[in-house]
Amino acid sequence: AQSVSQHNHHVILSEAASLELGCNYSYGGTVNLFWYVQYPGQHLQLLLKYFSGDPLVKGIKGFEAEFIKSKFSFNLRKPSVQWSDTAEYFCAVNAPNDYKLSFGAGTTVTVRA
Amino acid sequence: GAGVSQSPSNKVTEKGKDVELRCDPISGHTALYWYRQSLGQGLEFLIYFQGNSAPDKSGLPSDRFSAERTGGSVSTLTIQRTQQEDSAVYLCASSLGGAVTDTQYFGPGTRLTVL
Q1: Which in A42, A50, A69, B8 has the greatest CB count within 10 A?
Q2: Where are any strands of DSSP class E within chain A?
Q3: How many A/B residue pairs have CB atoms within 8 Å?
Q4: Pairing, β B110-114 against β B88-95
Q5: Rounded Cα–Cα distance for residues B85 and B77 (Å)
Q6: Residue A49 near chain B (CB below 8 Å)
Q7: Which three-class secondary structure state does DSSP give residue B55?
């Protein structure tokens, strides 16, 4: 079974700062990788996903993530955050033959205006 | 278009009572999932439906938990003899169903509180 680690529990930063959230997974084979976001009072929605091809994936709202196979990592980045990026961010994985997602514990991001 | 809907949005029950949680997936989505989000446990998978069949029930925590899906659409998650540790937000998601890389679209969840 896969497991997912998100090392940062809570990140606080100012507007225009750069953001990087770590995600590491443990699984020996090929995986599909996802970042989901949950804005306050809203439901989970997909930011981006990776399953093959270019390891640098661009998602919605200016987010991107880089898959580094040798490090079992899929870190999320945004060069310049806005107050509206305040949310909880979840990394998730599934194996190629498995529909269910395994989620990390989530990282709460607070952006101060 | 309409997203995944869940009802009720909040449910408070007494220990030992049975509860039913409902999920209406996006129209045309053949795959449906239930997850649970609780403090200290994060988001956990419960069960997956493809059509009306449940090929993966591996996440159901005990035999008090069951789920069904009818008409390839609505799903109901039933928890019998609720316990305080069942308190959590129960999330439903659906996907088009053809591939494991399909995006799972989540509903707003049902917050269950067991007193």
Answers
A1: A50
A2: 3-5, 10-14, 19-21, 24-26, 32-38, 45-50, 56-58, 64-68, 73-78, 87-94, 102-103, 107-112
A3: 57
A4: antiparallel
A5: 16
A6: yes
A7: strand
pLDDT in tens, B55-64: 889 999 999 9
Q: Chain B interface, mutation test: which of A32, A43, A93, most B Cβ atoms within 10 Å?
A: A43
Helix (H) or strand (E) holding A52: none
Mean pLDDT of chain A: 94
C-alpha count within 13 angstroms, C-beta hemisphere, residue B55: 10
Helix residue ranges, H only, chain B = none
DSSP helix/strand/coil, A80 = coil
Residues of B near A (Cβ–Cβ under 8 Å) read 3-4, 31, 33, 35, 42-45, 48, 50, 56, 58-59, 91, 93, 95, 100-101, 103-109
pLDDT tens digit sequence for B59-107: 999 999 999 999 989 999 999 999 999 999 999 999 998 688 899 999 9
